Amino acid sequence: MITVDNLSVEFGARPLFSGVSFVIGDSDRIALTGKNGAGKSTLLKIIAGQQHPTSGTVAVSHDTSVGYLPQVMELHNGRTVLEETLAAFSHIEEMKQQLERMSSEMATRTDYESDDYLALCEQYAHTEERLRMIGGANFQAEVQRTLQGLGFEPNDLQRPTTELSGGWRMRIELAKLLLQAPDVLLLDEPTNHLDIESIQWLEQYLAQHAMAVVLVSHDRAFINNVTTRTLEISCGRIWDYKVKYDEYVRLRAERREQQLRAYENQQKEIADLKEFIERFRYKPTKAVQVQERIKQLARIIPIEVDEVDNSALHLKFPPCQRSGDFPLIVEDLSKSYDHPIIQHVNLTIRRGEKVAFVGRNGEGKSTLVKCILGEIPFEGSLRVGHNVQIGYFAQNQAQMLDPDLTVFDTIDRVARGDIRTRLRDILGAFMFGGEASDKKVKVLSGGERSRLAMIKLLLEPVNFLILDEPTNHLDMNSKDVLKEAIAAFDGTVIVVSHDREFLDGLVQRVYAFGGGLVREHLGGIYDWLNNRPDLTNQGGEKPAPAPSPGRGVGSGGAAWAEQKAAARQRKRLERAVAEAEAEIAEIESAIAILEAQMSTPEGAVDTGLYEKHARLKARLDAAEAQWLEASEAQCAMDN
Questions:
Q1: How many helices (H) and strands (E) does the chain have?
Q2: Cα separation, 613 vs 55, whole angstroms
Q3: Cα-flanking dihedrals φ and ψ of residue 306, to 5°?
């Protein structure tokens, strides 16, 4: 359907890539990969006809339609969500008129055996099939199913697009593109503004619709579930792998090993030639051999080696103070604006736990994070534990960086200890290698600032991390570095993310937000995904899983009741331990203040201070006894 032949692109004197050739077939599902700046987005724009190459051609079959979703696009105002989406079908009437013209022509012609007549029949069949695929007269139902699959609720359809954030408006553009059912779909980071449910719906949609797909994405799970072929742009060339992304990673590592061996052999050959030339340059008897070596050296074409994979970099958070056993306890928390956002939330997070907040956008994940940080008022109880130091990453963190500092200086000011010797490696792992580390913050893009804010957080000593969509602007190598650092982190972590591959193996518990409620699921992200009501192919709800054994009537119901009672008792003990810890910390602070007063000449003779000290000591002993009793009971339940 599309043939790319000998394509080259140059910016100034610098070639981005050259000699690029490949073919996109009618059922190809292609992942376009390569390091940042390799030219992935540029190549998509050229295929879409929105940018011209320096040389080479892109040939698109005359009956092939191409749809393109860029990372950033100009969005229109003045319509509702439904009206804007229905604009995708403005071509339906044109297609119907085209079918009528072709039908009339076929009825009047008599050259049934000619190639021209057969081509007309094929074009008619193709146009009719496209009209059937996009629903024809019944397209409104498909519009609503598509919008629902991408996260829109029925009452959102009449909202003006001006009320929506850029991310939600990008979803409208994606819906319009899917509904047009092009033969080739070009997607540049389509999951950036989608939640997990919408990403899975999009995966199912692409799997069930007969269109070719070329996509750029840093979502490893999405790429593996959608594509079967991988095109890598590396060293200005295209490498074509007829395999899924994970298999490509393995084959690429083998290719790089071969490149390294060939490069090392070539370097030895060059060194030997240069040594011979220098050694015998001025000896007349060796003049012929020297000239031959000089020519041989000039004929050598340098072997290029793929850029070093910085995912092997190991990064550790700096040491920090130990927090209490329960850094966060939330009881019956609710938050409303003009309507309820989250209601009656109860959760307890232990020290060292790593948990995920998941759910559709707008269901209250960021709202609860703001409650934890004390940024907004709420109803109910929320207690941050003893000695907790919170490190918070959100997209607006990037706005708090000093614009006049360089990238390197920004990091150099927070780094401590031995890690200072590895700052260049760390910056390289997060795509700030080479000259990029000397850029001023004020010239960085939004994505670059977000990455820099993430590195800064990684180097600060905290014991409770809250990360809101930390992977949005990271490539796969950078995500691997971050994931390994979080996994090795001794403290507590809350991750708000839609990146399944990033969360897999990282979190031990999932809190799912939906319908104003927050439900706790023990286990990792795929445990939750495999055991929750999921989305059907049409964006609706699947039936909930059948009840597990022991949740019915009779003896099974009694067992379930016992489990629920045990869970309630465990939560009571957790609260008792946390409350005792908080009381101990409060009493210890009061004793410290009192002892400071007693150490002064005036305080040394004040008997009232000594009496207060004795009472506080007695309270401390009682609190410690309560803490010990609750802790022992808790350990007994856990064992």
A1: 20, 18
A2: 85
A3: -55, 150
User: Of 323, 391, 356, 385, nearest to 574 (Cα)?
Assistant: 385
Residues in the chain: 639
User: Greatest CA separation found in the chain?
Assistant: 122
Q: Name the band, by pLDDT with cuts 50, 70 and 90, for residue 500.
A: very high
User: What's the pLDDT tens digit per position in 110-137?
Assistant: 888 888 888 888 888 888 877 776 555 5
**331: buried, middle or exposed (CB in 10 Å: 19+, 13-18, 0-12)?**
middle
Query: Over the stretch 302-340, which tens digit does the pLDDT of each residue have?
Result: 877 765 544 445 667 777 788 889 999 999 999 998 788
pTM of the model: 0.67
CA dihedral 95, 97, 101, 107 (to 10 degrees): 90
Q: How far apart are CA 130 and CA 181, in angstroms?
A: 7
pLDDT tens track for 165-224: 777 888 888 998 888 888 999 999 898 888 888 899 999 989 888 789 999 998 999 999
The residues, any chain, with a CB within 8 Å of residue 534's CB and separated by 6 or more, are 200, 541, 542
What is the rounded distance in angstroms from the CA atom of residue 289 to the CA atom of residue 280? 9
Distance, in Å, from the CA atom of 514 to the CA atom of 361, rounded to the nearest integer, reads 9
Q: Which token pair is 587?
A: 């009493």
* CA 45 to each of CA 63, 123, 195, 362, 601: distance values in angstroms, whole numbers, following the listed order: 20, 27, 26, 32, 80
Which residues of 26-135 form beta strands (DSSP E)? 29-33, 55-60, 66-69
**DSSP category for residue 74:** P
Contacts 24+ apart (CB under 8 A), 487-491: 487/354, 488/316, 488/317, 489/317, 489/354, 489/465, 490/317, 490/320, 490/352, 490/463, 491/317, 491/320, 491/323, 491/351, 491/352, 491/462, 491/463, 491/464, 491/465
Q: Which two tokens stand for residue 481?
A: 């570095």
Neighbours of 561 (CB within 10 A): 11
Contact (Cβ atoms closer than 8 angstroms) between residue 213 and residue 29: yes
Contacts of 544 (CB under 8 A, 6+ apart): 533
Is residue 471 a contact partner of residue 218, using CB atoms and an 8 Å limit? yes
What Cα–Cα distance (Å) separates residue 8 from each residue in 27, 42, 122, 620?
26, 11, 34, 76
Q: Please tell me the distance from the alpha carbon of residue 561 to that of residue 32, in angstroms, as a whole number.
A: 53
